[in-house]
Amino acid sequence: MGNWVKRTAIILMCVAMAFSAAACNSKQKEKEEAEKAKQEQIKQENEAAANAFIGAVEALPKSDELKLKDETEVAGARELYDALTDEQKELVPSEKVTLLEEAERKIEELKEKKAERDAEKKENKKAAKQAEDVINGIPDNVTLDAENAVIQARAEYNQLTDDQKKFVSQKAIDKLTNAEGKIVELKEAQKKAEEEKAKKEEEKKKKAAEKKKSSKKNDKKKDSGKKEEKKQDKYSIAKKYVGKKASALIAAIGKPNKKKKNANCATDGEEYIYYYDGFYVGVLSQDMDSPLIVQNVTKN
User: Fold this and answer.
1) Where does the pLDDT of residue 39 fall: very low under 50, low under 70, confident under 90, or very high at 90 and above?
2) What is the dihedral of CA 226, 227, 230, 235, to 10 degrees?
3) Which residue, 77, 92, 107, sits at the end of a domain?
4) Count of the separate structural domains present in the chain
């Protein structure tokens, strides 16, 4: 009886130990399974994080097609990469990281170019405004006195580049072209007026010359008539001195143009012929002591 109890106790002990070992083995297995599941989850999370970055990079446009509007997407891809752990980064192919870096360089290049364009645009606007200020300085009521202002405004506009001219308002351009047209119109009117004035002056001079010529002609006629009249007057006066002293005749009508001495056979005195314009006078003295007396007056 004692031995049976002893054997039974031993058996029960062995069974208990078996159950205990089995329980320990089960717990170990559960622990290993849990660790394995945890690692699998970590792996999946790592792969998901890496794939999220890879997807973001692959969604970006090609480097030569990138625009500044893509900067947010590029920055987002960079944030995804920087958030990866070292283990996660090891799951990312190096070429994907290279794509990101190329995209970032392209964005920086585009930003630099934009900054240059913005600076150039600012300078273009400044130059355009200076030219426009000169144009706006042209008086609204354009006269020929404003010609220099118009010429200066055109010079200011013409020295602008094509890009700068884009910032000059159409209103200013219209004002300049209209002012130039007005100057041309005024100059043509001035030229026409000057030509008309010159024409009138020429006609006036011509008329004055003709009048002067006519006046000279009339004066010549008058002088000729006066001479003829004078001739007639001298002749008439001379006739009144027939029988009178030749000295009195000369005092009245002047000395003769010439005189000619004739041979005198009738008296002991002298005989002369006085020649005047249109007539001549014969004078004679009775002797050398007597005065010359007018004998006759005869027309040529």
Assistant:
1) confident
2) -140
3) 92
4) 3
Q: Are 164 and 121 in contact (CB under 8 A)?
A: no
Residue 175, domain extent: 125-194
- Same domain as 246, residue 179: no
Q: Which of 269, 292, 267, 268 is nearest to 282 (CA)?
A: 292
**Quick check: is 149 in a domain?**
yes
pLDDT digits (tens, 9 = 90+) for 83-100: 999 999 999 999 999 999
Domain-located, residue 105:
no
Structure tokens that stand for 169 in this block: 């308002």
**Residue 215 is assigned to a structural domain of this protein:** no
Average pLDDT over residues 140-152: 96
Sheet of 258-262: strand order equals 258-262, 271-276, 279-284, 293-299
Do both 62 and 16 map to the same domain?
A: yes
Q: Measured between alpha carbons, how far is 149 from 114 in angstroms, rounded to an integer?
A: 37
Per-position b or e across 74-90, b if 16+ CB within 10 A of its CB: beebbebbeebeeebee
136 plus 68 within the same structural domain: no
Report d(CA 20, CA 22) in Å as an integer.
Answer: 5
Tell me if 209 is assigned to some domain.
Answer: no
Helix segments in the chain, DSSP class H: 2-58, 71-82, 86-90, 94-136, 147-158, 162-165, 170-240, 246-253
pTM confidence score: 0.49
Residue for token pair 């609204």: 140
